[in-house]
Amino acid sequence: EVQLVESGGGLVQPGGSLRLSCAASGFTFSTYWMHWVRQAPGKGLVWVSRINYDASYTTSADSVKGRFTISRDNAKNMVYLQMNSLRAEDTAVYYCARGGSSWSADGYAYWGQGTLVTVSS
Amino acid sequence: EIVLTQSPGTLSLSPGNRATLSCRASQSVSSSYLAWYQQKPGQAPTLLIRGASSRATGIPDRFSGSGSGTDFTLTISRLEPEDFAVYYCQQYESSPLTFGQGTKLEIK
User: Fold this and answer.
1) How far apart are the C-alpha atoms of B19 and B8, rounded to whole Å?
2) pLDDT of res. B31
3) List of residues 6+ apart from B81 with CB closer than 8 A
4) B75-92: pLDDT as tens digits
5) Which of A100, A107, A112 has its CB closest to that of B90?
6) Closest residue of chain A to B49, computed from CA coordinates
7) How far apart are CA A97 and CA A115, in angstroms?
């Protein structure tokens, strides 16, 4: 059974940092792209960042470029989102999602349960 | 950036009705890279349709996707009580990946 479990959310002050983690199991982690998607309270889904299967390629939304960094550890089946210089508008539930494989793009068939990040003083 | 515009914003229908949800892209999207999701309150989204028209595993056949280029449609043939939720389209062809703003399907 495929499982994605996020952790690391919480309350942080503006300008602060937080590192989100996503533990993956039930599939060959090293062959899939991984993504982070966020959802502000009462709002829609927004793609944040993605990383390819061997971590040789990453890309992020303009709103987080230079502040957020996605990474992965294929030996541990983990994907991370390092969030620096946090702003109030970064307040959201952050979801980890499995993307396509190394040979084909795909939608997100698997999502984590989400972890809430609140940026407030 | 490919902007996806969903319409209507809210759709009020009764169980048993047919629902038609639209997703229009600001530039052409390859059909292979268009997905639809359903999200219920407090839950992560669920993939319904991938590649514009292929149902994801376990999705009932009352859900169907169609379209190409810049115009895509999600159709729910006969609404069940559990289908009332928010629906999002997504393109995963080019970065930044983008979602539509969502269509809320509510009970009339």
Assistant:
1) 11
2) 75
3) B15, B107
4) 999 999 999 999 999 999
5) A107
6) A107
7) 12
Which residues of chain A are within 8 Å of residue B45 when distances are taken between CB atoms?
Answer: 45, 95, 108, 111
The answer, yes or no, to whether residue A1 has pLDDT greater than 80, is yes
Q: Does the distance separating the beta carbons of A109 and B57 come in below 8 Å?
A: yes
B30 pLDDT higher than 90: no
Place of tokens 């376990």: B58
Q: What is the mean pLDDT of residues B50-69?
A: 96
Lookup result for tokens 């990453």: A58
Residue among B44, B47, B96 whose CB faces A107 most closely: B47
B55 close contact with A: CB closer than 8 A: no
**CA–CA gap between residue B46 and residue B44 (Å, rounded):** 7
Q: Is A27 on the interface with B (CB under 8 A)?
A: no
* Strand, coil or helix: A16: coil
- Among candidates A82, A112, A90, which has minimal Cα distance to A22? A112
Would an 8 Å CB–CB cutoff place A40 in contact with chain B? no
Mean pLDDT of A52-77: 97
